[in-house]
Amino acid sequence: MAGSSPSGDEMSSTDYLARHNVLLYVEDAISQLLEYKDENAKIIHGKFLADYFRSVHKGTHTMFREFEYVRATPHNRSCFIKSVWSCFRHIASHGELLSVKEYHSLLCLLCNDFPLDVVQRTARIVLMDDALDCLMSFVDFLYAFQIQFYYEEFVNACKEAYDHLLMASPTVVVPSTESWTQTKASTTETENVARLNEGVNSQTFFDVMEKTCGKLSQFTKRPSLQHIHSELSKLPKVTFYGLLTALSKNDDINAEIGSLPCHDCMLDGSDVDIILK
Amino acid sequence: MGDRKKSPIEERKQQYKDYLDKTDVTSQVREALLKLIENQPKDPMLFLANYFDNISTSDKSDKITTVHQILQLTHHSQQSFQTNLIVAYDAASLAKNPNSKKASMNRPGLTGSVFEELLATILSNVPKNLHATLLERIGCRASEMVPFDVFRYCITVCYVFVDFVKLCGSIFSVLCGKQSGKVTDKDICEIVISSLKDALDSLQDDNSPCSILEAAYVLRPDKLASSLLSNKSSKTDKSTMNEDDFMKEMIDVFTSKIKVLK
């Protein structure tokens, strides 16, 4: 399919198709068509395909689909996040607090094989890796979920960078009442815990993260470095979950993704709007 | 390994393949992807949705609709528009009935009547009073045959015109600003119209890149802003201009630059 492109085009055919995940959607369209025709004798193929692509364009295509499909492209992920918000936003206006398991059940209503693991990782961001059976508000959960799910590959790259830094930092002064002597060879558990709580140097973290993220494919979405840097520059030291929480609260990153409204507008719209929508 | 009976999965795959071939889905999807790669639209999903919509209604469509669809595939500023023009011209020139014994029915070529109908379809979203002057200049008689160069020129002009009309509409709403009514200060409108006229008049006939740049320079934002601001001081007679008149005048400036072909 990758023939030579006509002169003057901005990108080659393979790049264009890969950037928009065209082949994935075409393959899925045809599988859906074949499944559909098994159950329904009468089918107008052109219309079926037109409806499929229109639903992808509108963003309604991820509802009730399997996790593998929902996760497959950035567009699918952002549409799913939007559906979660529009389906469950009344929870936000009622101010209820829910547990990890309850959020997981909600997500399973829209995607029946959604893994618990993703929800747990989201909880770690909201609760800063602490007291993970705590209840969370819908708004906090949703913004953290957005970072964890939409930028999954980036979050993993970040963790890699962070762990690398944790293991490598040789001299960390641990302030405590008991005097611990630091040796390069032996690191005790308590020191590790202390290091975890304090975090790593922000500038170093940024540099290592830039390198790790450079290994990601050009089509993998990640927050723009400028916004990450603006969060990191706020404190001299930062923990992994501290950074992720900060990113989830950052309005610029939220606007980049484009699925959810800005933090202040989250609770706009009365219940009447929701019912009429 | 010798002939083996196909596994159930392979049989299923073959069944599906045959079904897709038989129902033409394979060839349609292949065509769609080729068109997609050729045109590289900003929104491939919408493009594919429209493409398959057209396919499912194409049995009932006539030549004009097919040609129009081909021309709509991409914006006139794109390189692939030129290719689409050629394809569209061929489609429009198809003989009405190749098997007919009547000589007039099986001669290929783009007739004037088909051409006029096509222009009308392209301009269908523009109100009639606005595009009448344009058609006067580029229309042709029913009995004439239309060569490709003329076809290319006129179709491109039509699409540029459609964009121009939209642009004028948005300029007018900007000039209206916060005023609720659909009227605005006549003087401001006149300044805008005369700026456009000056720019186009300064365009030398050779259409060299230099002269186009010079003409565009006349329309630069700060010059326009200064001429609009200099008008603000005189507040004598506040006559207004409504949208229709503004549009008409802008379009007159546009069409005065179009070659008369009729």
Describe the protein in words.
- The complex is a heterodimer of chains A (277) and B (262).
- In chain A, the strands form 2 sheets. A two-stranded antiparallel sheet of chain A has the order 1-2.
- Chain A is an all-alpha fold and 277 residues long.
- The longest helix of chain A is centred in the first third of the chain and has 21 residues.
- Helices cover 62% and strands 3% of the residues of chain A.
- Chain B is mainly alpha-helical and 262 residues long.
- Chain B has 12 helices and 2 strands.
- In chain B, strands 1-2 form a two-stranded antiparallel sheet.
- In chain B, helix 4 crosses helix 6.
- The longest helix of chain B is centred in the middle third of the chain and has 29 residues.
- Chains A and B meet through helix 1, helix 2 and helix 3 of A and helix 1, helix 2 and helix 3 of B.
Helix count of chain A equals: 15
Query: How many strands, which pairing sense, and closed or not: the largest β-sheet of chain A?
Result: 2 strands, antiparallel
Radius of gyration of chain A: 22 Å
Low-pLDDT regions of chain A = 1-8, 177-186, 270-277
Strand content of chain B: under 5%
Shape label of chain B: elongated
Main sheet: strand order of chain B: 1-2
- What is the helix tally of chain B? 12
Would you identify the regions of chain B where 5 or more consecutive residues have pLDDT less than 50? Answer: none
Chain-averaged pLDDT of chain A: 83
Q: Biggest interface and its residues per chain?
A: A-B, 31 and 28 residues
Radius of gyration of chain B: 25 Å
Rounded mean pLDDT of chain B is: 80
How would you describe the shape of chain A? Answer: globular
- Percentage of residues in strands of chain A: under 5%
Q: Provide the helix percentage of chain B.
A: 55-70%
Q: Which structural category do the helix and sheet elements of chain B fall into?
A: mainly alpha
Order of helices and strands of chain A: HHHHHEHHEHHHEHHEHHH
Question: Roughly how much helix do the residues of chain A carry, as a percent range?
Answer: 55-70%
Record the strand order, biggest sheet of chain A.
1-2
Beta-strand segment tally of chain B: 2
